[in-house]
Amino acid sequence: MRLTDIRIKLAPCQTDRLKAFCALTFDNTFVVRDVKLIDGHDGLFLAMPSRKLCDHCHRCGDKNHVRARFCNNCGNRLDENRHLRYRQGSAQNRLKLHADIAHPINVNCRHLIEQEVLAAYERELDRSKEPGYQPPSLDGEDWESDLPVMKTTGAIATA
User: Fold this and answer.
1) Partners of 55 in beta bridges
2) Which residue from 27, 33, 136, 138 has the least number of CB within 10 angstroms?
3) Local confidence pLDDT in tens for the 159 residues of the chain
4) How many CA atoms lie within 13 A of 152 on its CB side?
5) What is the 3-state secondary structure (H, E, C) of the chain?
6) C-alpha distances in angstroms, 143 versus 25, 42, 54, 114?
7) What are the domain boundaries of the chain?
8) Contact (Cβ atoms closer than 8 angstroms) between residue 115 and residue 84
9) CATH of the domain spanning 3-49+101-158
């Protein structure tokens, strides 16, 4: 699988830790959006798209964020210490409040993706200094016209 398109939208305020939003296309067929480029303690890194961890209210069964104090549906008071069940490994013992939706399986894959995204980020920073700069769209409005027409056979699409 190859990274075939990287779209970088610079964050409005470059003084914050968030530097850019990214959309990554693999093999011209699969897009991962909402990847963030963040300036961390050890330099720039990619934060993959994630969702907040939730659990269910014991009274009504509705989903609530693990740090919520009251149920969003019935208003029942929730156990304020229930988030302590979501630990990220015994060595770190950090609370895990988000779960990745999409992420690289190993360090080598993450490193390759980060290298390409950082190079694209540098190019986008240079472009942003040119007169008449227009940031790219991350919505994919123009992606469909760039892709080959796909024929489907059953559940699998083929070119």
Assistant:
1) 64
2) 27
3) 899 999 999 998 777 899 999 999 999 999 999 999 999 999 999 999 988 888 888 899 998 888 888 999 999 999 877 767 665 554 455 566 777 888 888 999 999 999 999 999 999 999 999 999 988 888 765 544 444 434 434 444 444
4) 3
5) CCEEEEEEEECCCCCCCEEEEEEEEECCCEEEEEEEEEEECCEEEEECCEEECEEECCCCCCEEECCCCECCCCCCECCCCHHHHCECCCCCCCECCEEECCCCCCHHHHHHHHHHHHHHHHHHHHHHCCCCCCCCCCCCCCHHHHCCCCEEECCEEEC
6) 10, 34, 33, 22
7) 3-49+101-158, 51-100
8) no
9) 3.30.1120.40
pTM: 0.67
